């Protein structure tokens, strides 16, 4: 048995593959383009593991995908590959359209051809799981109920609009062609291997480097945070038992304002790695210009996943965030590696 995982050198994809191979004796084909966000080092512990094959390539390269499918005959495909950073989508939306929309479309076409030719039993058992975001639902007011699967799509950034388009394509391939698809819409993840362009790893990295901790606007924007390994366990559960054609919201029941997340990070760092001058990392907090079109609040109602499939997160925000800070303190070589070169150009442009 084999699964194919796209975007597996990125943050969530890498955690997924590492967790999968720690628990299953099933071959994994990794397909990743290795953009700035993809890092072979994330999968370094799998070097020499015969159950893992890494292929550098684009989900939009239908000839390559068709070849991989024919050669390895996967029973499932998990699509993590995407351009994923909202701020980058504001500076340059084109790559988001190309990978998240056109790439997903080409992948679906290659998968449809492969699936159509499978023997009936394999056809029934096959799954295409598309990993998406809660950002497709838009922004909530402080009193709105959390996003349910039935909320209408109201994406506000080029990133979320491109993810919404990919979700619609996946849905259409089920309704039109019968492709056995599943979609998950998850809230903000955090944990090991998170690229330090996103809030939590950026704050940890800047704090330790003695740099300003940039808070957009008033810092009162709210996100729901989920430890990445809980997202991976939810995806495994949906793959195993999800109803075909359905979508599942995944969340941590952890709504936090950005400024509170940053205060928590500073307080943990004050304990774990105090500043040389004995002062708090909170002194590095700097309010900067807000993100254009910044969504005010995301909150996710994951009760369907809990009720129908029995999934619950294992970590609270308090336990997960401590583990995350510890991971960054213990993995400074990884951080140094990913923050060289192109990363500096991005930081220069975004925080100038
Ligand atoms: P990431 O940016 O860390 O990783 C994306 C990976 O995809 C990288 O390894 C990159 O090289 C690869 N990739 C990009 N374009 C590709 C292409 N055309 N072909 C093949 N590979 C390509 O992203 P992430 O945070 O790991 O997110 C993974 C998925 O989960 C995305 O689909 C994202 O929308 C979704 N998601 C992320 C979050 C979050 O908080 N990070 C929350 C909910 C959903
Ligand atoms: P981010 O990690 O980029 O995830 P997303 O935009 O997908 O939710 O940002 C999380 C929140 O943190 C978001 O409200 C924007 C805010 N933010 C800052 O205040 N400063 C920063 O430097 C970054 C990167 C994000």
From TrEMBL:
CDD domains: dTDP_GD_SDR_e (cd05246)
Record's keyword terms, sorted: Lyase, NAD
Domain (NAD(P)-binding) ranges: 4-324
EC number: 4.2.1.46
Catalytic activity: dTDP-alpha-D-glucose = dTDP-4-dehydro-6-deoxy-alpha-D-glucose + H2O
Name recorded for this polypeptide: dTDP-glucose 4,6-dehydratase
Family recorded in the similarity comment: Belongs to the NAD(P)-dependent epimerase/dehydratase family. dTDP-glucose dehydratase subfamily.
InterPro entries assigned to the protein according to its UniProt record, in alphabetical order: dTDP_Gluc_deHydtase (IPR005888), NAD(P)-bd_dom (IPR016040), NAD(P)-bd_dom_sf (IPR036291), Sc_DH/Rdtase_CS (IPR020904)
Enzyme class, broadest EC rank: lyase
The keyword Ligase is annotated on this UniProt entry: no
Pfam family, one: GDP_Man_Dehyd
Top-level taxon of the source organism: Bacteria
GO molecular function, one term: dTDP-glucose 4,6-dehydratase activity
GO process terms (BP): nucleotide-sugar metabolic process
Cofactor(s) the record lists: NAD(+)
């Amino acid at each position: 048995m084999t699964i194919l995982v796209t975007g597996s050198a990125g943050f969530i994809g890498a955690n997924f593959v590492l967790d999968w191979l720690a628990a299953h004796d099933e071959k994994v084909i990794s397909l990743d383009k290795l953009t700035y966000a993809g890092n072979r080092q994330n999968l370094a512990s799998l070097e020499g593991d015969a159950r893992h094959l890494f292929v550098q390539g684009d989900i939009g390269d239908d000839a390559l995908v068709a070849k991989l499918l024919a050669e390895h005959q996967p029973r499932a495909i998990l699509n993590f590959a995407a351009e994923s950073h909202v701020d980058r989508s504001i500076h340059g939306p084109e790559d988001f359209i190309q990978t998240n929309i056109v790439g997903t479309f080409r992948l679906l076409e290659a998968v449809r051809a492969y699936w159509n030719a499978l023997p009936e039993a394999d056809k029934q058992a096959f799954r295409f799981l598309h990993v998406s975001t809660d950002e497709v639902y838009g922004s909530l007011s402080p009193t709105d109920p959390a996003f349910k699967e039935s909320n209408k799509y109201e994406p506000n950034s080029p990133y979320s609009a491109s993810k919404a388009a990919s979700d619609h394509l996946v849905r259409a391939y089920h309704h039109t062609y019968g492709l056995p698809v599943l979609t998950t819409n998850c809230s903000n993840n955090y944990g090991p291997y998170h690229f330090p362009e996103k809030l939590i790893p950026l704050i940890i990295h800047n704090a330790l480097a003695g740099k300003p901790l940039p808070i957009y606007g008033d810092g009162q924007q709210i996100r729901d945070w989920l430890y990445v390994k809980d997202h991976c366990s939810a995806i495994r559960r949906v793959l195993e038992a999800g109803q075909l054609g359905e979508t599942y919201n995944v969340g941590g029941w952890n709504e936090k304002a950005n400024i509170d997340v940053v205060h928590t990070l500073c307080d943990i760092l004050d304990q774990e790695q105090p500043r040389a001058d004995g002062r708090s990392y909170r002194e590095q907090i700097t309010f900067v210009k807000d993100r254009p079109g910044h969504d005010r609040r995301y909150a996710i109602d994951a009760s369907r996943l809990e009720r129908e499939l029995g999934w619950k997160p294992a970590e609270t925000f308090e336990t997960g965030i401590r583990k995350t800070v510890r991971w960054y303190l213990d993995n400074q070589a990884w951080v140094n590696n990913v923050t060289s070169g192109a990363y500096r150009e991005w930081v220069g442009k975004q925080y100038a």
